[in-house]
Amino acid sequence: MLYQAYQFQDDLIAPLRDLARRLQIFSATALWGSGSEMGRHFAAALEMISRFEITHQRPDFAITSVMIGNRVVPVTVETVLDMPFGTLLRFATDTDAKRPRVLVVAPLSGHFATLLRGTVQTLLRDHDVYITDWANARDVPLSAGRFGMDDYVDYIMHFLEEIGPGAHILAVCQPCVQALAAVAVMSEERHPATPRTMTLMAGPIDPRESPTKVNELAVSKSLAWFENSLITGVPWRYRGAGRRVYPGFLQLVAFMSMNMERHQDAHRKLYDHLAKGETAEAGKIKKFYDEYFAVLDLTEEFYIETIERVFQKAELATGDLTHHGRKVDPGQIRNTALLTVEGGRDDICALGQTSAAHDLCRSLRPHLKRHHLQANVGHYGVFSGRRWEGEIYPVVRNMILAME
Questions:
Q1: What average pLDDT score do residues 377-386 get?
Q2: For 326-367, how does the pLDDT look when each residue is reduced to its tens digit (9 = 90+)?
Q3: Ranges for the PHB de-polymerase C-terminal domain (predicted)?
């Protein structure tokens, strides 16, 4: 009933949003004029109401070009492999130069892969970039079957196979565990598509290190509590009707509650910018929240297994992680260079959680391991923004280049 209650509330508010959008058009030609102080405040209030919405559709990547060398090169998003729960996308560039191929593994944690738009945009300067575009579980019919942690690892391996030998893998946040597991399995099998480098950025390899609020919540409740309180069925109006999911809107609420004052302050600033006609400043805030309020649902099995296996039992760190019943041994990784990246102010995946991968990959020689600690950045600053572009990305690029 949880999803149905949310949908009922959203349906009730929808006419109000629609009315606000219509009135925005009217306010531009109203007697008081949109240029007056009253008109600007009225228009700002209408826009705030019209934006009171969570969307469940993936935004566009909106990457149409990239600067390569000294010229602007067009970018086209191509579908390389389409599977029920995820699609492998390639950002094709109009260049003849052979460039390192990088698979970016996006998190499946309530937001779409477009959250890594800035990561991809930067990587495109020097690389042939692919990304995992995970599906919204509410749009996947029951006939497609289940999708759990083992299936996630399978998808990563399928995508690497499709890209071919000699590629590189870069995982951001939650999928660092699955990416490491995939590389370990492929290394043990001596799979020809085993990546040359593995970059793990702000991921919970060992969540027992410096536990954050996220980690503490995951271990403070029983699995039964998560199943009974957070899992619900998809309403019948959607393709995935009847599928049990962890709704993206709940994850959004959880994320926002960690920094509620910051989000409230951002929306106050948005209103002020709109009322003052400061469109550029308002545009920056709107752009962020357009992405932030676009959410997807996770399958029940993936969410519950992540809580249990990644956070409560820390199976990868303790050596108990299995893939389809077979033990996952990071010690099998011998030829894939490892780079871990952490943010000094990360309140989601704290210091030590990602760098724990170095101890697990015990067979790697020292020159194939590197850790980068970026001071004064939070979780999102590890893979987006000024510090990512100017200080973290060069480290990532050099690691990849060294193994080409």
A1: 94
A2: 999 999 999 999 999 999 999 999 999 999 999 999 999 999
A3: 202-401
CA distance 199 to 168: 8
User: And the tokens for 2?
Assistant: 């949880």
Number of domains forming the structure of the chain: 1
122 assigned to some structural domain? yes
Closest to 215 in 3D by CA, of 107, 346, 307: 307
Structure tokens at 249: 């809107």
Q: What phi-psi label fits residue 345: left (phi over 0), alpha (psi between -120 and 50 degrees) or beta?
A: alpha
List Cβ<8 Å contacts ≥24 apart for 19-25: 20/46, 20/47, 20/49, 20/50, 21/46, 21/50, 24/50
3-state secondary structure of 164: coil
Helix (H) / strand (E) element for 352: namely: none
pLDDT tens digits along 217-232: 899 999 999 999 999 9
Largest distance between two CA atoms of the chain: 75
Domain assignment of residue 82, given as a range: 65-217+298-402
Is 166 a member of any domain? yes
CA distances, 125 to each of 74, 118, 366 (Å): 12, 12, 29
Q: Is 293 left (phi over 0), alpha (psi -120 to 50) or beta?
A: alpha
Distance, in Å, from the CA atom of 106 to the CA atom of 92, rounded to the nearest integer, reads 18
Quick check: helix, strand or coil at residue 385?
coil
Q: Which residues is 370 bridged to in the sheet?
A: 339
- CB atoms inside a 10 Å sphere around CB 115: 21
Domain-embedded: residue 39:
no
C-alpha dist (Å) from residue 192 to 62, 157, 167, 300: 33, 11, 10, 33
Q: Is 70 inside a domain boundary? A: yes
In single-letter form, the type of residue at position 351 comes to L
Enter the pTM of the model. Answer: 0.90
Single-letter amino acid code for the residue at 159? F
Q: How far apart are CA 247 and CA 234, in angstroms?
A: 9
| Unique residue bearing structure tokens 């080409």 | 404
Distance CA 392, CA 396 (A): 7
Residue 341 belongs to a domain with what CATH number?
3.40.50.1820
Q: What are the pLDDT digits (tens) for 110-147?
A: 999 999 999 999 999 999 999 999 999 999 999 999 99
20 pLDDT band (50/70/90 cuts)?
low
- Smallest Cα–Cα separation from 330: which of 231, 222, 186? 186
How much is the pLDDT for 31?
47
